[in-house]
Amino acid sequence: MILGITGNIASGKSAVARMFAAHGAALVDADHLAREIVAPGHPVLQQLVKRFGSEVLCENGELDRERLGQIIFADKLAREDLNRITHPAIAKLAIERLRQLKTTPGIPLVVYEAPLLFEAGAEGRVDQVLVVKIDPAVQLQRLMARDGFAETAARQRIAAQMPQEEKLAGADYVIDNSESLAALQLRVDELWELLVSAENSR
Question: The sheet that has 2-6: what strands, in order across it?
Fold first, then answer.
């Protein structure tokens, strides 16, 4: 079974995915795939430079993710262009990795961590969807603390994303990460037991 994990910025998706991996799940991270496809020399990086200019490159030829982030979070059309350029390549890699892992014996669960699961129309790559939700005030504080954003910049990043309520509407499972890490661990442990038991009884 493939479980898609998604949620908005600073919701704790990666923490949840790591907890599942610690239980023995195989993990495919869409953000890692996105880094692979923008490596120097990759055609996707060349397309990004063509669209956004050489200002999105570091001196060593690598993608300047911080600069690109500033551009796309301030401009909806730029964000759409970024997704149009990158999503097909990420999808191709994700489908290959997920298919390979799903047919590998001894893997109880495959987790696909994808912040833009719904936005990319990638729900069909997974069997079930877990949305990690978070109280908006907690989200804002965590984002500011984690990334060093001023409040205005943090609010801009949050506002640029699909509303949390829309993601929750597409969820098979929801974990609330508004409390402590220990509370989150308990919720992940409970869901792990539920999913593995269901998979074993099939």
Answer: 26-29, 110-113, 2-6, 128-133, 173-176
CA distance 202 to 197: 9
121/100 Cα distance (integer angstroms) = 21
Q: How many CB atoms lie within 10 A of CB 146?
A: 11
**CA atoms of 121 and 163, how far apart (whole Å):** 15
pLDDT digits (tens, 9 = 90+) for 50-104: 999 999 999 999 999 999 999 998 899 999 999 999 999 999 999 999 999 999 9
Domains of the chain: 2-196 (3.40.50.300)
CB-CB neighbours of 4 under 10 Å: 27
CA diameter of the chain: 54
The closest alpha carbon to 19, from 179, 151, 189, 200, belongs to: 189
Give Cα separations from 112 to 35, 178, 184, 201, 202 (angstroms): 15, 22, 18, 22, 21
| Model confidence pLDDT, tens digit, residues 112-165 | 999 999 999 999 999 999 999 999 999 999 999 999 999 999 999 999 899 999
pTM for this predicted structure: 0.91
Q: How many helices (H) and strands (E) does the chain have?
A: 9, 5
